[in-house]
Amino acid sequence: MAGIALLTGASGGLGQAAAAELQQDGWTVALVGRSEERLRSIYGSEALCIEADVSTPEGAKAAVMRCQQQVGLPTALAHCAGTTLLSPLHRTTPELYRTCLTANLDSAFFTLGAFVDALREAREPGAAVLVSSVVARIGVANHEAIAAAKAGVEGLTRSAAATYAPSRIRVNAVAPGIMDTPAVARIIGNDASRAGAAKQYPLPGIGNPADLARLMAWLLSDKAGWITGQVWAMDGGFSSIRPLVR
Ligand SMILES: NC(=O)c1ccc[n+]([C@@H]2O[C@H](COP(=O)([O-])OP(=O)(O)OC[C@H]3O[C@@H](n4cnc5c(N)ncnc54)[C@H](OP(=O)(O)O)[C@@H]3O)[C@@H](O)[C@H]2O)c1
Description:
Radius of gyration: 17 Å
Largest sheet: 7 strands, parallel
CATH architecture: 3-Layer(aba) Sandwich
Number of strands: 7
Order of helices and strands: EHEHEHEHEHEHHE
Shape: globular
Oligomer: single chain
Structural class: alpha/beta
Bound molecules: NADP nicotinamide-adenine-dinucleotide phosphate
Strand content: 5-15%
Distance between the termini: 49 Å
CATH superfamily: NAD(P)-binding Rossmann-like Domain
């Protein structure tokens, strides 16, 4: 049964797709982003918007607390906040590395922590889905920082799933390949670069955020009630098959 879902990165491409899917499933969605103005420009003045920077422990706690104060305890978390970074190790400055780790790993760690704290205090079950990336599982050149961050997200997923299974709190992750969102607009900005990106994947085309959002909504639903600690790839086969070379 749907209840209240906390959605981070709600202003982003995947976040907007996830908001639509969760609402379709009957969830009341608390939309979290670092700018209320940006959220309102997307979702309108009536939407439940929460301005918070979930990459800090204080911001993550504030997001969960404000959700509780405004509508109630969130029993689902869709953590879509994050970035991507195409940069080889030798060109990744300490600042780029820190920014990448903060946006992707710190945000997942602190947001999941705040969500679990609230559920445990209320002695309620719940479900979270985090977002990894295809580059966590398979070596892809020029992705060292984001690969490290997302591998961390996958480890976090499995360990937290183990810790909180007895409390009936489920934790899963999804690991997409390239998806058509603002995060990669520069990489797939024209027809040639889009075709070049698509060529890397066994199945034709690139990912659709709406499809990943559907998977996330399903993982948060009761239908996935006996699934935890899993990382679900949606990557056109990239991470597990080697196409026949003709
Ligand atoms: N698009 C892809 O090809 C692809 C592939 C693999 C994995 N992913 C992952 O999918 C997730 C969603 O990405 P997307 O494609 O939807 O990107 P997006 O359109 O850029 O949206 C990401 C959102 O995350 C929030 N965010 C960024 N940095 C943050 C930070 N330091 N702290 C808190 N929030 C931050 C931003 O919201 P505000 O600025 O409003 O706070 C932004 O709107 C990310 O985890 C990304 O790593 C994407």
